[in-house]
């Protein structure tokens, strides 16, 4: 009988760069397994603050801060891409097991390098050009209308502009850019794959995404996805190829565009737990958070298959109002079977801020959708007077 | 549409007396709902320490300590019976919502009062007599062989002796005692019921229990239970009656003896989350911890029904050896679908100490049992050299 690395796992010291909701939810399986957890975040009111063994207030984008934070950790991981890759490199040099690695982070935190990586590895993606600043965009005026993305530091849609001409770009786009062709999107799906320290890989079932066009944020996510198996298998293969070619250890969440002419194009990917996997907590045999933990600690990967159909809805700050926040859940949602509310513990709301999410599970997707629509009317964020 | 008390729940301050594994697991739904949590425990290495917003090191059996701890809490609850009832009374007087109440705690922390309560409320229980000390036991020598229980401070079987004569009682039984007839036990089951601040009640499905005779601890628990529906309904009715007559708010975990002649006898009960409900985390639509939280915060109760068959096994410290502990999980358990390991984060093991548990879920109980037997061979506690 194989003795696995769980031997001693209960004493393992795990560092997590970033203390947002993804870090908070990653701490749940760490608690179940009894790990020692240390979280780094600049916000002393970070959602993960009170779920970890040790909280360190500091900026994970600063190499020195991250290097110091990593001291004494056996394993270091991230819940956000925007961490100092130099800090991760120094942690690697000091003997900490860093998953994903500094090299993987460097790749995925730059959407230009990411696009080039897809191109170099025969992973279909929307046609693109890399350029620099507003002048660079004007030099490619012939590619417009286009989707323009900041190569770095874009997050939750804030670094993406869909414009008809370069002149419509906002001033903060005077920076390194990816200019992408607008593609004819029929469906958007996401697939989260896990790859462990031993090279084992497993893919979660695809999820369908619908976006809030105003906030440019994922609004609703659902599983299973009813699309031709050939298309889904193709996406699966591409997600696994991306993880293997990039050498990801941990999760890689890959978003796809499926076009009306049946192309499967990678949109973008992130080497960490992802909003598109929240439903896995209740709907899959293994959650994305547990799977990430298994992958980075050298455990065998868990079964990612669905136990039930699921719909996940982000709970966003109301369009009007910012200030101290509270969650309101009216009936019939308050007593609804199969409804799971996750509130991230952010004390302050602002318009469209991700304050929480809810997942509805049911035997069929139609049932889950119907219940989610009812729940959506009952769950909201209010500003405390 | 009814506006429920979830309004403002995300800002609610919940105090929990006791920071053991039950407190630790109770904190998971508190995190999901974003509550402010404060935990009191004498052990500065308590399992719940790092999952709460604020940890207070102190003895919940001291009235002053508990009174001070409760200041500023909106709701106070317990994860252990052995808390100062006087402290709870003072918290009630100060306007804190204490669930379960001081009166309920006083009742259930004394097995003599408990037995009398069952007798007074037509709740069948094994014939008994209350007496005091070894001399008292000798005065009832005619009732032996008997089950003798310390009226107070017994826990995890340490306050129960099954003896043939009073002379066999250990010295620490020179205290207030319950002397019970040994009954002809065919099955042991437990039913956890929830009763909310509004009086709503719901019962979890019965679970079957098998005991480790050496440790006198629940060893394996399983659901569903295949016994005649009439017997199970009777137990259900008795559990609900006990909760209502006692005025419990929160959970009441009721253990039953089912005799060969089809009597349904209450053994004992605890007004808190219970070892016999661990499996509800993965196997029921609502966990016992979420149900307790709903009950004490005035939320509608959730659906307690089973989603799958389940077997729960306590992970105990090995019979030999005490010291710094680690968990070992060998294959095939490490990658088993439907196996959920919970390690409580206790840094030190000792023989038979509850260090964690695992739950196996499966479509059928036979399948869950088979997997649990495999898992049992693969999961163990070791002393770190």
Polypeptide structure, described:
Two copies of one chain form a homodimer. Chain A is of the alpha+beta class. Helix content of chain A is about 25%, strand content about 30%. Chain A is built from ten helices and 21 strands. Chain A has helices at about 20-35, 65-70, 85-95, 100-110, 110-120, 135-140, 230-245, 280-285, 290-295, 365-380, and strands spanning about 15, 35-40, 55, 75-80, 95-100, 130, 145-150, 160-165, 175-180, 185-195, 200-205, 205-210, 215-225, 250-260, 265-270, 310-315, 325-330, 340-345, 350, 355-360, 380-385. In chain A, strands 10, 11, 12, 13, 14, 15, 16, 18 and 20 form a nine-stranded antiparallel beta sheet that branches. A five-stranded parallel beta sheet of chain A has the order 3-2-1-4-5, sandwiched between helices. A four-stranded antiparallel beta sheet of chain A has the order 6-9-7-8. The longest helix of chain A has 18 residues, at about 230-245. Chain A is globular and about 55 Å long. Chain A starts with 12 loop residues before the first strand and ends with a strand. At the A-B interface, helix 1, strand 17 and strand 18 of A face helix 1, strand 17 and strand 18 of B.
């Amino acid at each position: 009988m194989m003795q696995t690395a769980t031997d001693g796992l209960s004493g393992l010291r795990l560092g997590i760069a970033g203390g947002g909701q993804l870090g908070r939810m990653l701490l749940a399986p760490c608690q179940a397994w009894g790990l020692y957890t240390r979280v780094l975040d600049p916000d002393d009111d970070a959602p993960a603050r009170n779920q970890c063994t040790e909280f360190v207030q500091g900026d994970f984008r600063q190499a020195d801060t991250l290097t110091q934070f990593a001291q004494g950790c056996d394993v270091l991981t991230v819940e956000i891409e925007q961490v100092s890759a130099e800090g991760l490199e120094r942690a690697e040099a000091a003997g900490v097991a860093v998953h994903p690695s500094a090299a993987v982070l460097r790749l995925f935190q730059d959407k230009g390098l990411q696009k080039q990586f897809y191109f170099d590895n025969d992973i279909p993606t929307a046609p693109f050009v890399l350029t620099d600043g507003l002048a660079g965009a004007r030099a490619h005026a012939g590619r417009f209308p286009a989707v323009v993305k900041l190569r770095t530091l874009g997050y939750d849609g804030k670094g993406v502009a869909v414009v008809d001409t370069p002149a419509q770009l906002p001033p903060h786009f005077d920076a390194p850019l990816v200019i992408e062709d607008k593609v004819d999107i029929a469906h958007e799906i996401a697939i989260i794959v896990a790859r462990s320290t031993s090279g084992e890989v497993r893919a979660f079932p695809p999820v369908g995404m619908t976006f809030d066009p105003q906030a440019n944020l994922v609004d609703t996510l659902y599983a299973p996805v009813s699309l031709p198996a050939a298309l889904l298998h193709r996406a699966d293969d591409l997600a696994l190829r991306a993880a293997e070619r990039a050498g990801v250890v941990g999760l890689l969440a890959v978003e796809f565009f499926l076009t009306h002419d049946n192309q499967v194009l990678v949109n973008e990917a992130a080497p960490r737990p992802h909003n598109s996997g929240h439903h896995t907590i209740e709907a899959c045999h293994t959650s994305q958070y547990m799977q990430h933990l298994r992958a980075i600690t050298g455990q065998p990967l868990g079964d990612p298959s669905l136990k039930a159909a699921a719909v996940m809805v982000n709970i966003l700050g109301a369009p009007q109002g910012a200030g101290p926040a509270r969650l309101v859940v009216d009936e019939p949602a308050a007593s609804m079977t199969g409804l799971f509310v996750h509130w991230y513990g952010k004390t302050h709301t602002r318009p469209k801020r991700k304050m929480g999410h809810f997942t509805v599970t049911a035997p069929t997707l139609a049932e889950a959708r119907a219940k989610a629509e009812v729940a959506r009317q009952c769950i909201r964020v209010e500003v405390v007077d």
